[in-house]
Amino acid sequence: MKKNVFIGLTLIFLGLLNNAMAQAKYSGFVQSIDIRDYQGKKFTFSTLTKYESSNQMIGFAACYDDQGRFLENHLGDEPAPMDDNAWRALTLSGKIHKKGIKLLIGVLCQDAGEYYLDNLQLTIKGDKNDAPILVNGTFEDLDSGLSAFMCLSKEDSTALVKEPNHENNHILKLTVNGESTAIGRNNKVGKQVKVNGINLYYETYGEGEPLLLLHGADMSIGSFSSIIPTLAKHYKVIALDTRGHGKSTEDGRKLTYELYAEDVNAFLDKLGIEAVNVLGWSDGGNTGLVLAMNYPDKVSRLATMAAILYNDKTSVDTKINKLLEKQIEDLESRTLNEREEFSLRVKKSLQSEPNISPAALSKINCPTLIMAGEHDYVKEAHTKLIAKNIPDATFIIFDGTGHNALTEIPQRFSETVLNFLEKR
Questions:
Q1: Which of 171, 219, 353, 356 is the one with CA 20 to 30 A from 63?
Q2: Considering 130, 147, 176, which residue would you say is the last residue of a domain?
Q3: Which residues are paired to 169 by β-bridges?
Q4: 60, 46, 58: which is closest to 124 by C-alpha?
Q5: How many helices (H) and strands (E) does the chain have?
Q6: pLDDT band of 196, cuts 50, 70, 90
Q7: Residue at 181 is within a domain
Q8: What is the mean pLDDT of the chain?
Q9: Stated pTM of the model
Q10: pLDDT the model gives residue 122
């Protein structure tokens, strides 16, 4: 059977995806393997990936019979949001169709941008053969190169590039071309304004009363992509990249939440917005608290998810701070590019910021919703402390979720925020 038969069928599948998700373009990178020896067996595909948080990547497998007819596909889950351009593990598990002959397996990418891959592995439960099933999944065989792989769009390009700070010398760079329309890199709605000597990037969706979204540390507007479409049906959503994050610039000043809040205040002045509803997630919640304290007239209503007043063992799970220390040590051990240098500064700031006194929260005079997840690394007692010290604050813990409730339960989270904002 010819390889292009499978490519054609997969491109049809991608076309259906693109029609269903009109705001984004899908592309992908796969390898075709013979699966006659694995029919009916369970499989696991894994890879390391790196890309901007405003984009998405999932594991993908498509199974075909001996006539090249599509039988079924498997789509993985999007990894939890992480730092921009940080390596993350991606996995996909499933069961091979009992009539399957060929399997296209790899990744699907959503929207234009640069994606990096390494250590592609496929394992079959019960298979005793030690030889790798995928050809050159580590990309270290330069003679083989990318000959065993396929890019699912002729518009896009692939190349092997060196990554000296990674565990392997070579990784795959997949460039998905075209105009980006993903939330966080949407050229059609994105704008920049100059405030406090820096350029702040923002995107606006929907109409009505303004709702400002503030993301977490080392994140960007794209971290809100799962809830913006719902929120934009009711509000004029203004999603902001804070200084140095996403597409916003920075000027080297010490990173504090007072500075972030000062930026936001100047940003609102620049847009001519007298008062705004604010939804802050994680570090964005910290900024929201400081904004409501220092510029009370600017905040109509405040909702925070997983905010903290200070970083110590009473507020945050010790595992997170140990992970933070490890990330800092790793960055300090090697030569960094400009983005990594800023990420190091952000991570160091997290060790000593914020510094908010519980008593100071009494300055907040707007309706406030304080939220966290049941399994959040922000301790529930600390979240309760925040709510207790804000006059008439509403306190909610989302059952069964963690720090990433926005992506874990986007509908329930959005409904909770909307119900709060619409309560008069």
A1: 171
A2: 176
A3: none
A4: 46
A5: 9, 18
A6: very high
A7: no
A8: 89
A9: 0.72
A10: 95
